[in-house]
Please model this.
Amino acid sequence: NQLTHVTLTNYSKSEESRELIQKALLENDFMKHLEASQILTIMDCMYPTTLAQGCCVIQEGDDGSTVYVLEEGSVDVTKGEQKLCTIEPGKVFGELAILYNCTRTATVTALTDIKLWAIDRQGFQTIMMRTGLLKHSNY
Ligand code: CMP
Model:
């Protein structure tokens, strides 16, 4: 499988950022069941990105391929005309499209200038897949 040939890149982070990302992953209902080593590898592979106030981070209905952890600022989550919630730093978002292989379930808009950590589908799936392969080879 081609995922076994993907090179994962580590992005250096402050200790504060490492803690924020790990905590966010461990608090997320869909991520918290991952193994500790997977959480650490996802954290290592997340890359930094910034967006200005008012920018659309995620558009409902799009094909999505990135999972985010919010580090600074806040974002609004809306579905159609309806506001669902405001997300504050230390939270994961954008996980549903990758985990369920569906289109983006909501729109996410930057309420302030924001700083994010991100990981793309390929890296995310490689981490899931490798752990599976390693386990399999242990039998
Ligand atoms: P995803 O569907 O990939 O992209 C939109 C994101 O908004 C979604 O993942 C969740 O992370 C987030 N989201 C969707 N619905 C809600 C909700 N009801 N409350 C909080 N966050 C949500």
